[in-house]
Amino acid sequence: MLLTALPSDVLILVLQRLSVGELVALSETCRLLNSLVTEFGWAAYLRINPRHSFSLSQTRKKWPTKMQVRYDFQADRSWARSEFVARPLSRPWSGKMQPILAISPSRLIVAAGSGISSYKFGVARDSESPPIHLEGTFSFAPPNGRVSDITGITFVDDGGLDQTLCIAFQNGTLQRVSLQPPPQDDPTASLGATYSVSSRLHDGDFIESLSSARSMLLSLSSSGAATLTNLQFPSLPEAVALNARSWVSHLCLDSSGPYAAFGTSSTNPLRVHSITNDEISKVPSAILHTNLHSDLPAPKPVTSAVYGISRAPPASSWGASPQILVSGWFDGYVRCYDLRSSARAVEGAGSLDGPAPLRPVLTMKDPLQLETIYSVSCGGGSSSHVAAGSARHSVVSFWDIRSTRTGWGVHAPGNDRSPVYSVILESSRLYGATQSRPFVYDFGPGVDLETYPALPEGRGIDGLKRKKGSSGIGYYVTKYPHSTRGLPANEP
Ligand SMILES: *[C@@H]1O[C@H](CO)[C@@H](O)[C@H](O)[C@H]1NC(C)=O
Predict the structure, then answer these.
(1) CA-to-CA distance for 219 and 151, rounded, in angstroms?
(2) Which residue CA neighbors atom 14 of ligand 1 most closely?
(3) Ligand 1 mean position, distance from CA 231 (Å)
(4) Residue 489 — pLDDT band, cuts 50, 70, 90?
(5) What average pLDDT is seen over the chain?
(6) How far apart are CA 139 and CA 123, in angstroms?
(7) 150 Cα nearest atom in ligand 1
(8) Is residue 488 predicted with pLDDT exceeding 70?
(9) Mean pLDDT of 57-61
(10) Dihedral of CA 484/486/490/492: which sign?
């Protein structure tokens, strides 16, 4: 019997399991199969192989399915070869900053000092890489009075406008900010913003981390006061006290088990509190331990710190569950935890003082430069990468979660000695920020001189070196394999 004699719905089912190469081959065999692949094959492939990206989202809606698959295929291939275009997004700042990044489907915000820069995501006209341009900058420095740096920033839900942010300042205020983008036909207009104070912390405390999902805002103060607010029905919720110097929060409102995760400097550096009826529970539902193996009779307490938390990459071997966390630690390790797992750090425990510590399901590190991890984000090629910004030499490390022994690192343009304070990983782009500047690594095809904001031409400007050839789009960066030959990647 001929394959094409099968009913179309059976053929469509077969298509769903095919790779890009197989779909291409099949579409070249005959008219019937070609039209089935065109109509169903590419769409099925995209469904089974999602590639999450904010900056591409508007362009992807316009691209035919085959074009999207081609883009993803080429980006995945560049990831496998560690090939990308490196670009600073701006000239360096004049002083040393501790920048923070925030992203939405419309724009990337870089907060540095008391100001923000907004980079707007454009729509690609054809198959070129979707462009990003500087929409404007805005300073929150008061005309007279003390300038206060931004310590936390997040987009909050405003019905898809992507113009509303919550921004926390060193002086303890939390402000709700509404951006006023300049009209596109007026090149002289600048970015505006209206803002109002929504709360204020006292006694020198300030918000260190902000995260948001749906209409909920999670804030974590430097002294460990965690507050969950429903922005639609603002009230003054009671704070949960973590009683530790706190660094980072992560909010997950997924129906399978909403929770908030907190990174602190303490003997419980990473803990998870469940959320019920929009309230954070006072006691942790999970304590995440560093032990890979269980200790008897009791696990040694860990005194450490966690600075970065992210949801695991969608294509991780444990599935795409939001119950899997990736965390960046003081000791230079990136640790993954499956909150559904029963791998406790002590067998049979679960004491009166709370839940038994949970062991990581996977750990990763750069064996050559075991530096503290400041930031983590997941996604990338094949939806299976973890990116970690380290505390020194502007290094970002990448691991493919399917083979963590083949990790690699790269120094940001300019080779600063700085930490990488913030990273955001999309399917084909990594945004990062050092004390000197924001930058992007673009693994996708079609990057040209129009894709990113223009930078001054010429040799050695801002201490950077443009790459020869490829029409000077990319900049030189130093890459190195973690080169784990003979080195166990998974010791505790
Ligand atoms: C806190 O700092 C911000 C940014 O500099 C400023 O806009 C705000 O007015 C300050 N608030 C107070 C109460 O000082």
Answers:
(1) 11
(2) 171
(3) 21
(4) very low
(5) 90
(6) 27
(7) 4
(8) no
(9) 95
(10) negative
- Chain segment 427-450, per-residue pLDDT in tens: 999 999 999 999 999 999 999 999
Cβ proximity of 492 and 363 under 8 Å = yes
Structure tokens at 37: 């692949």
**Per-residue tokens: 487:** 């080195």
The whole-angstrom separation of Cα 384 and Cα 52 is 11
Q: How far apart, in whole angstroms, are the C-alpha atoms of residue 271 and residue 285?
A: 8
Backbone φ, ψ for residue 37 (5° rounding): -65, -45
Determine the pLDDT at residue 315. 85
Is the CB of 231 within 6 Å of ligand 1? no
pLDDT in tens, 205-250: 999 999 999 999 999 999 999 999 999 987 778 899 999 999 999 9
Any ligand 1 atom below 6 A from CB of 141? yes
Neighbour count for residue 195 (Cβ, 10 Å): 16
Q: Which two tokens stand for residue 20?
A: 């890009």
Instruction: Assess contact for 135 and 143: CB atoms under 8 A.
Output: no
The dihedral over CA atoms of 376, 382, 384, 389, expressed in degrees to the nearest 10, equals: -20
Ligand 1: residue whose CA is nearest its atom 9: 142
Please tell me the distance from the alpha carbon of residue 220 to that of residue 239, in angstroms, as a whole number: 9
Read off the pLDDT of residues 195-204 as tens digits, 9 standing for 90 and up.
Answer: 988 889 988 9
Residue 322 has pLDDT above 60, yes or no: yes
The span from the CA of 220 to the CA of 228, in Å, is 9
b/e for 40-77, b at 16 or more Cβ within 10 A? bbbbbbbeebebebbbbbebbeebebbbbbbbbbebbe
Ligand 1 nearest atom to the CA of residue 200, by list position: 13
Distance from residue 417's CA to the centre of ligand 1 (Å): 31
Q: What angle do CA 347, 348, 352 make, to 5 degrees?
A: 120
CA angle 474, 475, 477 (to 5 degrees): 125
Cα(53)–Cα(313) distance, integer angstroms = 12
Given a cut of 80, whether residue 261 has pLDDT beyond it is yes
- 94 CA from centroid of ligand 1 (Å): 22
What is this structure's pTM?
Answer: 0.94
Instruction: Take residue 363 and report the two structure tokens written for it.
Output: 């750990």
Beta bridge partners of 153: 167
Residue 491 confidence class, pLDDT cut points 50, 70, 90: very low
Task: Retrieve residue 75's tokens.
Answer: 């980006």
Weakest-pLDDT range from 157-161, 190-194, 337-341, 487-491: 487-491
DSSP sequence for 47-92: HHS----STTHHHHHHS-HHHHHHHHHHHHHHHHTT--EEEESSPP
Whose C-alpha lies nearest to ligand 1, atom 7?
140
148 lines ligand 1 (CB under 6 A): yes
CA dist 358 and 344 (Å) reads 4
